[in-house]
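## retry 2 of 3
previous attempt timed out at serialization; input unchanged, resubmitting
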Amino acid sequence: MQPPELAKALLTEAAEWRLLGLLFEYPNPAWREQVHALLPDLLSPGLRLLGEQALEYATEGLHIALFGPAGTVPIREVTHKDGVQFGYLMAELAAFYDAFGFSRPRDEADDHLAVELNFIAYLKMKEAFALAAGDHRSAKITADAAGEFVREHIALFADPLNTRLENFAPDYLIEAGRAIRQRTGASPKSAFPLSTPFTGDADCEDMSCGAAVAGNDLIQL
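## retry succeeded, writing output
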């Protein structure tokens, strides 16, 4: 696949990861606007249907019952890990986010599922922009970081998340969980600490890991 086609494919992936992140966010009016705006960029009919179903069925009460502090489906990474050093996990996540200029919401913790999914969407978009600019080295750094983050964080709780969703959630969220699991693959079940905390390096400095340019309205991060 040539760079322009690959960049386009990455933007498609970014839209898909962004939708999956939105499905686990609090469904306020701004959320509805973002889901509506994203639907035309979803090439997968199945994912587009999930977005449409979310707009129809998602409510504040459902979100709180499932994902709130006393909810039946924990969606923070730390709750799915035994013996995790909470401070280490949060420091590792913050290092990833800061290295790539990712602005996360103030009302959700760094290990919230929606934040982690939106980070992958952001990295896919950033990689696409690097490829479009002919900066293959920066694109590879970003792609490697995305792969590591998925393996070491999202994949590690995709399975228990799916179990909880299948037991308690409506169909569109069950399908969203399966879509996440399909993208992460099997959990590596690595021991904690998961990896050396990502702090960036000379390569990251050379690629200018600040926030990605706005580009278009494909993903509103």
